[in-house]
Write a structure and sequence with these properties.
This is Acyl-CoA oxidase C-terminal domain-containing protein. 61% of the residues lie in helices and 0% in strands. With 222 residues, it is mostly helical. It has two domains: 4-174, Butyryl-CoA Dehydrogenase, subunit A, domain 3 (Up-down Bundle); 176-206, no CATH class. α3 (43-67) runs antiparallel to α4. The relative contact order is 0.09.
């Protein structure tokens, strides 16, 4: 919150990890503008939504703090953190997570794994943006229902796509294992068909078992 006066003066704020280097009062003059859902789900755009949100919440936290200066310090902090400060902290953490992880995802050598992890990270960002939707409307970043609709529709779309990429996702976040590459490890959803196919391909599956003669002449004592 102490950063806002510096940001308002146009001072470039720089931390060692670059977590707030985007802070600029001009960010608040930007508005939501994408032409389709693919653009909406782009990681760079998701980071842009968060950067506007963090800047807005930082300004609102500072403004509210100034209005509450006549109160005692405990009441001032308590009343301010109920809304803006708490949301600001959460948004800052989520933005930094997406920012750092996206850089690591770009380093993935496998295109398939990189694509799946990008979808997963986009889903993480959009899913968490849901709780901040009122702030985007309150601050004038969005108008109309498109932003909220895109959030809902993109979550459903990404979930559906990640279902089909389940095996790639397992390979991306876990070490290779026998189960992942077995008949039940495929992501097509046809588990029984693949189990049947795997069984029928085994050597001697249709031959008479060697132990059949041992039980052939057994009779029940009942």
């Amino acid at each position: 919150m102490k950063l806002w006066p510096e940001v308002a003066k146009g001072t470039i704020v720089d931390f060692p990890l670059g977590s707030v280097s985007f802070l600029n009062k001009e960010v608040l003059n930007t508005t939501f503008h994408v032409s389709n859902m693919q653009q909406f789900m782009d990681l760079n755009n998701i980071l842009g939504y968060y950067r506007w949100l963090i800047t807005y919440l930082l300004k609102k936290s500072h403004d509210k703090h100034v209005r509450l200066l006549e109160n005692d310090q405990f009441s001032r902090k308590n009343e301010n953190q109920v809304y803006y400060r708490k949301s600001l902290s959460v948004a800052y953490f989520e933005h930094f997570t997406i920012q750092i992880v996206s850089l690591k995802v770009k380093e993935a050598a496998d295109d398939e794994i990189r694509t799946v992890l990008t979808k997963l990270l986009s889903l993480y960002g959009i899913w968490n943006l849901q709780k901040f939707v009122p702030y985007f409307y309150e601050g004038g970043y969005v108008h109309g229902s498109l932003f909220a609709e895109y959030i809902e529709d993109s979550i459903l779309l990404l979930n559906h796509e990640l279902e089909k990429d389940a095996l790639s996702l397992v390979n991306a976040i876990a070490s290779p294992d026998v189960f992942g590459w077995s008949a039940v490890g495929y992501s097509g959803g046809q588990i029984y068909e693949r189990l049947e196919s795997a069984i029928l391909q085994q050597l001697g599956v249709f031959s008479t078992p060697a132990w059949i003669s041992a039980i052939k002449n057994l009779k029940s004592k009942l």
